[in-house]
Design a protein that fits this description.
single chain; mainly alpha; Lysozyme
């Protein structure tokens, strides 16, 4: 027995997974507001891991903390553990912030019966920064794109962006995971879908002939292939931080908080003054209010998070929240900030509609993912149009990046008939149905069919267009 233990120890100690990676740094100002920059927190492993070395210490640790979401151990997960366990400052901050944010996440996830492990996702999505904005427009702790946020009930207007609201966005994320799991039947696939969309995951399942994430992984977009093992590694590092000399750092929310509902327009600075706090504290606690003004109304009260104060301050708080601000209260619905949608709109307005194909000449350093992002298309589209079996490309190579006739053929459910009708099947949700039709949203289906909720039944006929 002693000899066996010694052998395992020597084997584990000799394990060394070499990887090269690049990261994209976040840029934050003094109020914690995120400048528009790339917020992808998943490092890109640029050199493939050459061998599969099973380190049983890490495997046993992952097994010991596994609950509902499978925390598979393999060389890809080990690669990200090696990366993340060295980021002691970053994960020290995440541990500090978790004491404030995790209870919020857990409550929302519990409401939809979602595994609590999903609470670790904002670590790799946004580094738990509610003001994070990605290069394509994904916003907030949970990095919601504009269209998905609207479909899940989040509001964006000239006063508020609820993607930045920790509470509202967490409930929207929980609802998304409920739908993704109901459709895909696997938590790792649901996590992958959160990154690249259920459509990409479904296509990968069809190609691989399997619904196991590790089997379909080669058929997923590059970022998603890394996203799931990075998530597992993040869970590990947060749980075993002390084994890697990572300690929790103090955060700005080390006090107890309370919430009040406001039915008038109230300035956060006035409310902060009433409770003897600096206005930056209330601004940080309420990141969704663009103008630092809470736009509550009797019909739609708005939540405000404040530090818990002595009841002696209640009178002053009452006076502030019941005094309406003398400002222009006109609400203007926000238009999409999805960079991909904006690119499509721009190209539609300037491109000759008769053009059936568009060619791109590959530049040095470009990848299919980069090119797909430029044209607002999928990597898979480029591969199909150009009959590529691999993702490797070379400078000077000519690629078809737009093929309007094919895009219409590929949309099997869309027809020229504006009276398209869809029959609800087992496992369908309004969001899943909307994704099958180009330009259709959950809100559109609800309006066309007089639906007052998301509830639908198998066999129901729905008008789509």
């Amino acid at each position: 027995m002693r000899k066996t233990i010694l052998t395992i120890f020597i084997f584990c100690s000799s394990l060394n997974v070499f990887s090269q990676f690049k990261t994209k740094q976040l840029s934050v100002d003094s109020l914690g507001q995120e400048k528009r920059t790339d917020t992808i927190s998943v490092p890109e492993l640029r050199q493939a891991l050459l061998t599969y070395n099973q380190n049983y210490i890490y495997k046993l640790r992952l097994d010991s903390i596994q609950q509902t979401v499978p925390l598979t151990y393999n060389e890809f997960v080990q690669g990200y553990i090696d990366v993340y366990s060295k980021r002691k400052d970053m994960y020290g901050k995440m541990l500090g912030l978790s004491s404030y944010y995790f209870p919020i996440f857990e409550q929302a996830l519990k409401a939809y019966n979602i595994p609590s492990e999903i609470k670790y996702l904002p670590i790799i999505e946004s580094s738990m920064n509610p003001h994070a904005i990605s290069r394509v427009g994904a916003t907030g702790l949970w990095q919601f794109m504009f269209g998905t946020a609207k479909n899940y009930g989040l509001n964006m207007d000239n006063f508020v962006d609820e993607r930045k609201d920790p509470v509202q966005a967490s409930y929207a994320a929980a609802a998304y995971f409920r739908d993704a799991y109901n459709e895909l039947g696997d938590w790792l696939l649901a996590i992958a879908a959160y990154n690249c969309g259920k459509g990409n995951v479904t296509r990968a399942i069809d190609k691989a002939g399997s619904n196991d994430f590790w089997q379909i992984r080669p058929y997923l977009p590059k970022e998603t292939r890394d996203y799931v093992p990075a998530f597992i590694a993040a869970v590990y590092v947060m749980k075993y931080a002390n084994r890697h000399e990572i300690t929790a750092q103090n955060n700005s929310f080390s006090f107890k908080t309370d919430s009040i509902m406001v039915t008038r327009f109230v300035a956060l600075k006035d409310l902060a003054k009433a409770i003897n706090y600096d206005s930056t504290t209330l601004i940080a606690l309420n990141p969704s209010y663009k103008k630092f003004i809470v736009n509550g109304t009797p019909e739609l009260p708005k939540r405000v998070i404040i530090p818990k104060v002595d009841p002696a301050f209640y009178t002053k708080i009452f006076e502030i929240v019941n005094t309406d601000l003398d400002i222009d209260k006109t609400l203007i619905a926000a238009t999409t900030d999805d960079v991909r949608d904006l690119r499509k709109l721009n190209k539609t307005s300037v491109k000759d509609q008769k053009t059936k194909t568009q060619i791109h000449s590959v530049k040095a350093g470009e990848t299919l993912t980069v090119i797909a992002g430029k044209y607002g298309i999928e990597v898979q589209d480029i591969k199909v149009w150009n009959k590529l079996s691999e993702t490797s490309i070379i400078p000077g190579q000519k690629l078809i990046v737009a093929k309007t006739s094919d895009s219409l053929k590929n949309n099997k459910n869309a027809t020229a008939d504006k009276q398209t009708v869809y029959k609800v099947e087992a496992g369908d949700t309004l969001f899943a149905i909307a994704e099958k039709f180009k330009g259709v949203t959950v809100e559109t289906i609800q309006k066309l069919n007089g639906l007052k909720s998301h509830a639908i039944k198998v066999g129901m006929l729905l008008r789509i267009m």
